[in-house]
Amino acid sequence: MLDQTQLKHNAAQAAIQYIQPLLGPDVVLGVGTGSTVDLFIDALEAHKALFRGAASSSERSAVRLRARGITVFDLNEVSAMPVYVDGADEIDAQLNMIKGGGGALTREKIVASVAGQFVCIVDESKLVAGLGRFPLPVEVIPMAREAVARRLTELGGRPVLRDGFVTDNGCQILDVAGLRIPDPADLEARVNNIPGVVCCGLFALDGADVALISTQDGVRRIDRQPA
Ligand SMILES: O=C[C@H](O)[C@H](O)[C@H](O)COP(=O)(O)O
């Protein structure tokens, strides 16, 4: 029986295999944030001669990348990247996700938007029939926090401030339990439209293109189906 760390490790290794044909001397990879991505970064070190560097979705991952000898580029220096690799807190079979358990959701969405494809690496505990058990992280501008919280309550949620946490963008996170999410893209648009919201952790308008889901029986791949 593999434990969760071993499952995450296998997902990270599967991502290394997946990206290998995409590597080249000019290639900058998009690298996400979290404990699964930490293992991906560690595995990436052995291949660092085969690509130019990485653009990262957090200071945490940037520090780890540099410690492994991988050059980290400011996203403003990067006009294209073939692939972005990141974890998720929940993912459904349509490859909609909830992300932001580590608070990096906004930069994750930005870096992913530059990439040709989003490869999501998770262990099987993250695969759900419907999103919403994991409280939705919402990054807010601090002066708008209470106004945003009231609007999220009107949407049926129970927002709770992530106490003492400041994002890489100097903002705060509301974790919103209780939301019903029958249509993830619709809710993503609605939450992102609330004044004072920087970004919410739903990734449905642009979900993952490929999921590598690590199970006790091996890594299962799901490709996004055309709409
Ligand atoms: O902000 C954090 C990210 O969205 C992570 O990708 C997500 O929380 C999953 O992290 P982990 O791999 O540690 O479960």
Automatic annotation (TrEMBL):
GO molecular function terms attached to this record: ribose-5-phosphate isomerase activity
InterPro entries reported in the protein's UniProt record: NagB/RpiA_transferase-like, Ribose5P_isomerase_typA_subgr, Ribose5P_isomerase_type_A
Enzyme Commission number(s) of this protein: 5.3.1.6
Pathway(s) where this gene product acts: Carbohydrate degradation; pentose phosphate pathway; D-ribose 5-phosphate from D-ribulose 5-phosphate (non-oxidative stage): step 1/1
GO terms (BP aspect): D-ribose metabolic process; pentose-phosphate shunt, non-oxidative branch
PANTHER family associated with the record: RIBOSE-5-PHOSPHATE ISOMERASE (PTHR11934)
Family, per entry: Belongs to the ribose 5-phosphate isomerase family.
Assembly information from the UniProt record: Homodimer.
Protein name: Ribose-5-phosphate isomerase A
Gene that this polypeptide is encoded by: rpiA
